[in-house]
Amino acid sequence: MLFIVIGIFVAVAVGAFLRQQSRHSAQEQQEEAIQPEAVILDLPDDDEEPEYTLTAKPVTSPELVSGATYSSHAPAGEESPYGRSASEAKPKPQAQPNLLRWCGRTGNIQLDKITIPGPAAYWSNGEPATPEPSCIDITLPVAFPQIGDPLPAEGAESYAGMTELQRGIYLTWLSGARIQPPIHACYPAMWLYGIERRTIVDKLDLTMCLNDVFRLLPLLRWEALSNNIVKFITWLAVKIWLPDEDLLGFCKRLNNVPEGLLDILLNSYANSMLPLPSAVAFTVIRTSTKLRREGQPIISHSDELLQKFTPIYKEICNGGLILSKPQSTLKIDYKPSNPSIKLGKKDNDPVEIPDFFENLSIFKPLLDSWEVFLAANKVEEKTPDLSNIAERPDFEGFINTLRPEGSDLPLISTLQEIGKLMKFDISQPKLNGKERKAIVDTAQVEGWQILPDLGVSGRLYRWQDRILLQELEPGTQLSHGYRVASFMLEFMCASLAVDEDRVFEPLRQRMNECFPLTEEDNIRLEGQKPLNLSTQYGPEYYGDFLCEWLSDTERKTLRNFILGAVSFLPEFGDNPEVNSVLCEFLRLDENEEIPEQELNKSLKERGKETMKVLSPLFKNN
Hints:
The chain is mainly alpha-helical. It has 23 helices and ten strands. It has helices at 2-33, 164-175, 186-201, 206-216, 223-240, 244-251, 259-267, 278-287, 303-316, 364-377, 395-402, 415-421, 433-446, 480-495, 501-514, 519-527, 529-533, 539-549, 552-566, 570-573, 577-586, 596-599, 603-614, and strands at residues 101-103, 108-111, 114-117, 121-124, 136-137, 329-332, 351-354, 411-414, 448-451, 466-471. It has a three-stranded mixed β-sheet with strand order 1-4-5, covered by helices on one side. A hairpin with a 2-residue loop joins β2 (108-111) and β3. The chain is elongated and about 95 Å long.
């Protein structure tokens, strides 16, 4: 009996073992059958098996890029290769191309010391398998711009094709939430490439992308790029049938709205037998290029003007315009500007919407009310107000406030007013380096140069100091010769008490004999006259920081330069007090005789020496 029990026990144990082995073999076969294609990995040196995630953190380089997000619903096809989830079997590491990953609003990219929150852009850890010109390859070198760095005037066709400085400028712009005007069209165009791929190829985040493009449009000054973005917005708005309130809010920001957007806006009220709301009617008649009659002004949206328009509109239109849906239609399509997106014949089919603007006679009551409104209120064309852009300093509005309507007078303000505009703490008497850099950067991207130069090392800048703003084409590189000439002209006016144009103008022209200046440089030097003729600084002000930065020999070089530059003017040429004044604030011995060889030097030689002496003061420019 005992032997029978032992035999049964052994049989059961052997059977269980065989069944377990069978299940294990079947599981291995099943896993081998569903083994996914290899995912791109950068393996650690110790060949430690990497971890996989579906969302939140990237597959590789967590120390460089954190919080990157990409949708679990994204198709894993050829045009959108996304990583696989942890629930799937882990592939065996192989040498494969890198994945193209999307970082949306909830993620951020960290490169070096810069954080890019919610860039709405693609990134990769190396050259991506899917060609995408906007992809931020985190392995490529970046040089972030410093104050005074010459801004590149040329553009780039892809992130990989950018120079290191261009990448730094682009990433800096993205890190600022894209609320500042970009300095070159290539940066917003490149960002749009990624938005196009996300919406057209991946077919994801359409509403989020549309809102981000809405916010970008008012910052652009390039007509071709702006028109293309408006086409994209129109196509995308039709695709998702943007809610009326959102569409109306967007149209209010523009002075010219494409017919497609207005057709979408009007479609909601057609055949409803309800009068067109006054806000919609005001926006349509204000922004439609087809309805605007010759001679009528282009005006920006204003709630005050809307209130004045409403009673006139309701009276002439008998309570409001009632529309019927037209028989004709308008086809809306969009061809992506991204060169890496190849669409087939069936991709991106045009969408048809009712065309309300084929027969303009239906708008006659609205046109009549607009004529009466314009005549009654004498509305004039105004520059659009961009102050509604979140967190962005309304620099354009600031400039328009300084400049009287129709005037071309120089723009003079104070650093304090710009500090208020940029929400700096102006309770301290002077500016720090970070504040000066921010002011210069903001002015540059808006197309303005600030005088006096805020990049002179060792110089004291106070919030109450007056400044002059001159228009400057973004990307313009100011030469070292111009910067020195500008400073020396300011310096001479203050030290010699120049307060008349008859003295200033010959001195300005004299700078051409001393420094290599272009025609544009001369225009800029002439423009700084109002600030120089009513200088706010005395000779002691300049003497303090020049004596701190320069040696006795270098200060003598400046003194000799000034004596030579003003020698042709009767007021200074034969006046021995000029040397006394210069020696006093430059802390030089006025009784020391100037060597004859110094007196015989040409102005060009003296100019070269002066540029060399002042190089340390302009090291940040």
